[in-house]
Amino acid sequence: MNIQMLNHHESSKHTIGQEFEYEIYTQALLKILQDGSLCEEIILANITESHFAMLQDSIPEISSKLIFPKKGNKLKLAQLANLNAIHLLENNEKMHCNENKILQDIVSLFSLQQNINNIEVFDTSHHGGDFIVGAMISYNNNNFCKENYRHYNLTAKDEYGQMKEMLTRRATNFDILPAPNLWLLDGGKAQINLAYDILKSTGASVEILAIAKEKRDFKAYRAKGSAKDILRSKHLEFRLNHNDTRLQFLQKLRDEAHRFAISFHRHKKVKNISQ
Questions:
Q1: SS (H, E, C) 6-74
Q2: Domain 112-274 falls in which CATH fold?
Q3: Which of 100, 172, 180, 215 is the most exposed place for a label (fewest CB within 10 A)?
């Protein structure tokens, strides 16, 4: 039997008042209905009887599938889902605390002049000089902010020119989407100097870091563990151990920007083939 479980949990730090409980479940059930992903039964955990009755009345298309268990195995399943939600919430809180500490450590490592909580990361993608695109992702207050992600169609043929084109377009848009605390670039010293030159005319106070693979010869390339990322600011350079949390955090941001750029590049390529 296919069963879906819906649950919300309250905590002292993430309080969801009961007045919102009905709306939360309503939106979740409507999404399930819209996606066409209905199962035979939908168990609702951690809900009041009155809100359960209201949901049955307000969404008659799935009312027969809704279950509010009071005993037996389904109640145990609901309790387990509630426990999992508590653990997930606690883990998210720990992760956010850890990432705040990591951001503070990055500020200290590079002697940055301001705290970091709003980061933009840039990457480009192309195939043999065709379908050249750029991508910017946003990371703000411990979350990827996909509403601030941006794609760029680029015309420059070299990587330096592509980065210049993308950063210039972003900087001229600070009046619409305010500048972040930090730009993280795919590249090295040339890209960092380029970014500072572009920012001069805006008056924006943005820290700049870059991440890039170190250049290796053939033997080093074959050596296990030789592929290290180099982290740079305007005046500092680090090759951190692969398990360093500061490196891993910046790699996570870089990888998300790379994924976003690649997906847009593939979309353009497929679209061109289908025309």
A1: EECCCCCCCCCCHHHHHHHHHHHHHHHHHHCCCCCEEEEECCCHHHHHHHHHHCCCCHHHEECCCCHHH
A2: Nucleotidyltransferase; domain 5 (3.30.420)
A3: 215
